[in-house]
Amino acid sequence: MNARNAIAASATLHCLTGCAIGEIAGLMIGTAIGLSTVQTMALAISLAFVFGYALSSLPLVGAGMSLGRALKLVLAADTLSIIVMEVVDNAVMAAIPGAMDAGLVNPVFWLGMMIALTAAFVAAFPVNRYLIDRGKGHALHHGAHGEHGAHGEHGEHGDHGEHEHHGHDHHPHGSEHHA
Length: 179
What we know:
Layout: H1 3-32, H2 37-62, H3 67-95, H4 107-133, H5 138-148
Helix pairs in contact: 1-2, 1-3, 1-4, 2-3, 3-4, 3-5
């Protein structure tokens, strides 16, 4: 696997982890407090975004970036990927007979969730690869990590060494990533 595919796969899996945690938490909470199916899905999708953004923000903040700047970067880098994941995940779950009504203790629900999350990964991978190829998406994270020393192999200006970005502008919004 080439370096950009590896970064795209890592970004997609990272994003999917946050989305899965949020969705499952939302489904459990919605079911436990007796929300309707629509309310439960809205809660699950909302929490998928919250956890997706949170998991992407933590390493940036840990590397010394301010929370506000990390959230700004994560919103720019991960929103499209999370949207694609959520659309595909929910469409697949809705298409699997009985999966949405199965309940959290039913194997049909969990099998459906595994199929839906796999489909979401497959759908979001090319989105992340496209963004990385243009110096956006997870490439922004790598540039930010390089600025804050989280990954020693990255240079001060987002030089990704083995990541082979072939001269693409790694900071398409100018100096806002170099504050």
